[in-house]
Amino acid sequence: MTGLMQDEVFMAFCTYSLIVIMKLMIMAPITAYYRISRGAFANAEDVGLKPIEERKKMLRNHPDVERVRRCHLNDLENVIPFVLVGFFYALSGPELSTALLHFRLFAASRICHTIVYLAALRQPCRALSFLVGVAVTLSMTYNVLSKVLVL
Amino acid sequence: MTGLMQDEVFMAFCTYSLIVIMKLMIMAPITAYYRISRGAFANAEDVGLKPIEERKKMLRNHPDVERVRRCHLNDLENVIPFVLVGFFYALSGPELSTALLHFRLFAASRICHTIVYLAALRQPCRALSFLVGVAVTLSMTYNVLSKVLVL
Amino acid sequence: MTGLMQDEVFMAFCTYSLIVIMKLMIMAPITAYYRISRGAFANAEDVGLKPIEERKKMLRNHPDVERVRRCHLNDLENVIPFVLVGFFYALSGPELSTALLHFRLFAASRICHTIVYLAALRQPCRALSFLVGVAVTLSMTYNVLSKVLVL
Fold first, then answer.
1. Which residues of B touch A17 (CB under 8 A)?
2. What ipTM, to 2 d.p.?
């Protein structure tokens, strides 16, 4: 157990996993910021302190809030698979330098993806940053399956 | 391998992880219950046995169903990161009592969060229960990164 | 560490986890296909190259796209818990044949679920394929908790 945490590849995997999970979790305060600054809430109890005539107006969707929520969901759909696949990959005994290349590329791609998504930069910026992350996860999957395959 | 499952901290992590994952999965039958009792479905095939004139009316959103779905999504966004971060935390060799404090606080905060969300209790109940869970995950992340950091 | 990857149950768990995670990730290109073929996009920058008069019309929801997205979310809600619970289950020392039965049933149920959902086959096809997956995860949870329980 302590053995696992003394392995350099696993320590690198641990570090980068925590970075991308923190990246994922920071979407929650960003959503809160957009909800408050745009005045667009989802729950009646969240606008309970406002004057009655304002309340109904604030229970609405706002394009900026929906954008942050799509970005958050996209993180869930990509960051969690990366951590799960990365775990098997880290256990499969890759070279440290190869592993670091995978982990760094993925972390960079997801940070870029968020910036590009929230700033609504023109395509193909978002598509590219998304695809780099997917390519890393696929490459790790291929690496693991080429060593371990029990059907 | 059996060694990992004989470590007390890891066994506690395993128990509480399973509790919060079950808490997450119970949202599916709760959604089904609200869909049926409110008569609000998302798929045409789900209302296939109803009389034709009723079908279109039942393919709609209902605020109660949307509330359960937001609660479910919030669980995904918080419970899964807890389990992933908690795994690294459990491997990093914390004191059993400290680890149990983290795990119990998180499980309690998420159970409270669901009750508060579904009952639409006034704020800041939901915000507080949400933030306790986030604080636990951040504290575990900080603990792991202070011991393991390979960039 | 290499020990874990030489254990047959763990290797089987690794293989089936990667299969269902790939199944989850393939929903992203399927969504892209439906968005393009149905002309229904969520972000203004995704239709930036179209003539101006067409742009607004393409920023809309389409029932087929929403169907794929619900299928994707349902995968997140079920595949990720399977992998997390399956990890504890694989460590808890089950018989290889019993473990393989669990893993194969789950993978089959999720592949059926996606086909049934996207083809909008009549109920209870989708409900059944969903419930088989849930039953596997519950059975693994029960197995682990009956061996490991530290509250």
1. 84, 88
2. 0.92
